[in-house]
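Changelog-adjacent note: as of this version, every example in the card shows the full chain rather than a window. The one below runs 164 residues end to end.
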Amino acid sequence: MTELDEALDAIFDRRDRANMRPTIDAFEAVLRNHPDEPRVVYEVGGAYDTDGQEERAIGYYERALALGLDGELRRRCLLQYGSTLRNLGRLEESLAVFDRAIAEYPSSVSLPVFKALTLHAQRRPNAAIADLLEAIADRLDSPEIARYGAAIRGNAEYIRDLGD
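Full-length structure tokens:
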């Protein structure tokens, strides 16, 4: 872990979700010294997002992705970006982000859950519940779920075929 990563982690660990201004200020200060560092840009976006400034967060997420954010941080950024688009009512864009993210990170547990929220926001409850059922069957490591995995997947297919 680099010094920069340690500094960013320390800022994140001190954040107060009820008062994000100190966190935003701290991340912005780091950004002034590292304007093209993808993780720094992502963290600034996340702080604005947590503060309820979704429109402002979008630009940081897009820039972090364009700068080459990768690995686990890219997965997190895509999730937050897709969720923020959903919260702003940009549902088609949100769904496209989640589809892209799931293609990049097929073993992610959280991405299909948040995609289901976008489907629900699109007034597609059957598609949403089908995606959730598939996520449970495919990604939840549990003997109970494994025993009924085929039945859960079958129900997901049936519900999806009902349409919305």
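Structural remarks: Residues 98 and 115 are 6 Å apart (CA to CA).
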